[in-house]
Amino acid sequence: MNPEWIGYIAATLTSASFIPQAVMTIRTRDTRSISRGMYVIYTVGIAFWLVYGIALDSWPMIYANVVTLGLAITILVLKLRYG
Amino acid sequence: MNPEWIGYIAATLTSASFIPQAVMTIRTRDTRSISRGMYVIYTVGIAFWLVYGIALDSWPMIYANVVTLGLAITILVLKLRYG
Fold first, then answer.
1. What is the pLDDT of residues A30-72, one digit of tens each?
2. Which pLDDT belongs to residue A23?
3. Alpha-carbon distance B45 to A10, whole Å?
4. Do residues A56 and B61 lie in contact, with contact meaning Cβ atoms separated by under 8 Å?
5. Which residue of chain A comes nearest to B37, CA vs CA?
6. Interface pTM (ipTM) of the complex?
7. What total of structural domains would you count in chain B?
8. Residue B43: which of B7, B79, B4 has the closest Cα?
């Protein structure tokens, strides 16, 4: 299998995975068992992955990290709001 | 900055981010506001990122995804156990 396709499948899965968490958190407004530390560190880390993807000219990484960054920030903002 | 270093910083942050979540979940046994769907999809996705990292011979990606896979599986197992 072409490595780029493996990358696209990986990108789609890890980015999409944050959708059910974001939807669940928006609906329930329950963030008690979600770690704030996780989402702070994760958001900064994804920003670095995005820069790395740009440096490698890897479109699966760029595409994945832009989407994931948006979802991670959404969950982080909800965590900061609802505690 | 050398792209590999950006990758290593990114890898360290996104992998390490799951540590506070895993520690919090192990301690509290509270998984109510964590999405099961997220961790199922995320775990499969990280397995694909690992294969992509191997295909690209990218050590930051390989290193990051082995660690993240272990942490994601830990949180998923706790979610399946505690509901």
1. 999 999 999 999 999 999 999 999 999 988 789 889 999 999 9
2. 97
3. 5
4. no
5. A20
6. 0.88
7. 1
8. B79
Euclidean distance between CA atoms B64 and B9, whole angstroms: 10
Residue appearing with tokens 């360290």: B12
The residue of A34, A43, A76 whose CB has the most chain B CBs within 10 angstroms, and thus the best one to mutate to test that interface, is A34
Residue A12 φ/ψ, nearest 5 degrees: -65, -45
Distance of alpha carbon B58 from its chain centroid, rounded?
17
Domain CATH for B10: 1.20.1280.290
> What is the distance between the alpha carbons of residues A76 and A80, in angstroms, rounded to a whole number?
6
Q: Are A14 and A64 in contact (CB under 8 A)?
A: yes
A57: helix, strand or coil: coil
Enumerate the residues of chain B whose CB falls inside 8 A of the CB of residue A76.
Answer: none
- B48 and A13 within 8 Å at the Cβ level: the answer is yes
Consecutive H or E run containing A41: helix A36-56
At residue B23, the pLDDT reads 97
Q: What pLDDT, on a 0 to 100 scale, did the predictor assign at position A58? A: 85
Place of tokens 């994760």: A42
**Full domain range(s) for residue A45:** 3-82
What pLDDT shows up at residue B60? 77
Q: What is the pLDDT of residues A1-40, one digit of tens each?
A: 788 899 889 989 988 999 999 999 999 999 999 999 999 9
